[in-house]
Amino acid sequence: MHHSFEPAEASQHGERLPSVNWRSRLSSAGFLPCLSASSQYTRSGDFCCVPMQGSHPGQLPNLNLRIPAATLSTPAWISWTARANLSYIVRMLANLKLRRNYDGLLYFAESTRNLQKLQGHHHIELELNLVVQGTITYVVGGQRFTFSQRTLLWLFPHQEHQMVDRSDNAQFYVAVFKPSVIDRYCRNEAYQGLKRGALAHDGVLSTVLRPEPFDLVRKTMDSLMQGSMDSDLLNREAGFGPASDFRFEHSDPDALNAGLRYLLLLSWRSQLAGKATRDAISLHPAVRRALKLLSEDQTEQKLDELARDCGASKSYLSRIFHRQIGVPLNRYRNSLRLSRFFEQYQQADGKTITQAVYAAGFGSYAQFYKVFSQAYGRGPRNCLRLS
């Protein structure tokens, strides 16, 4: 039996939580948030329904907690779930910081300049990728998926996803759509799958488009890029993870919004007309554990210590990680250090490049320079347009 509960004190926009601590009242009553790798919440307008479970099965009913969606990423909510040892799921909720006058965003990502963030995450927006060239590899739900040219793929709001690799020549579009767009414009039965999301699909929903629909979807995306922000900036900020002061902008938001709505419906029709792909590799528990530990800032852990925590020898972990992820473990760790370098460098405390290098876990600037140049084909100062 499920009951609904809506905290009256919760801010309408999720900006803060009240001094009257309804979380404590729920906890003391024996209720905990059902946030796990397989749990799901539903979205309605600006609110999310989070399932709560009684800590004493059979004695307390389950209930649905209706809270502002933005609350899920506030420090107060994170603190509460941390006390239930579940904070790592909530911290994965990425805030794309879309302004109210935007229904979503779109950018064109390229391996040579997309400074990706490798930690697993999810967001309240629906994400759509179109692979134009090369391959990209995601880990979703303990499985590895590699997508090639002309693949259209969907990442639904509650799906934690992690891009773990991409080919050197990879080019792909990334589009995201606010839940309100789906609520308002996907009314016909044909589009109900967008509202059900990944609940009806195992893994990542995707299809390889035939040349004609691929060209149509790609040209639509190309047209929406007109009036957008500089591609280097979008790759650096949207592709890596928005810096604290970054906001997506477009010269004509109304035209972009209209185009995004058309793109969403066009892409879904193309998905339905194609054949869903199911090319997935289930990851070994040691590999899944390694990905989790490395995403939790454990890049400085020695390989033998990491292997021990994963329940494997270091030689076996290195071998199975490379075989299943497609990337050597050492290269993957260096990629994580690169992403953390950009996190450190973009912070408001004004770190120098050298300070950010050591804060990210590199042993020396020479090591950082070598890894950076191999990844992006140019030195960090040129890439960052620094004098």
What does this structure look like?
This protein has helices spanning 22-28, 75-83, 87-91, 179-185, 192-196, 211-224, 231-237, 253-273, 285-295, 303-309, 314-325, 329-346, 353-359, 365-376, 380-383, and strands at 2-5, 31-33, 42-44, 47-54, 62-68, 104-110, 126-133, 136-140, 143-147, 151-155, 161-166, 171-177, 205-208, 280-282. The chain is α+β, with helices and mostly antiparallel strands. It folds into three domains: 2-91, no CATH class; 104-280, Sandwich (Jelly Rolls), CATH 2.60.120; 284-383, Homeodomain-like (Arc Repressor Mutant, subunit A, Orthogonal Bundle), CATH 1.10.10.60. Strands 1, 2, 3, 4 and 5 form a five-stranded mixed beta sheet that branches. Strands 6-12-7-10-13 form a five-stranded antiparallel beta sheet. A hairpin with a 2-residue loop joins strand 3 and strand 4. Mean pLDDT is 76; it is low at 1-32, 34-40, 54-62 and 77-91.
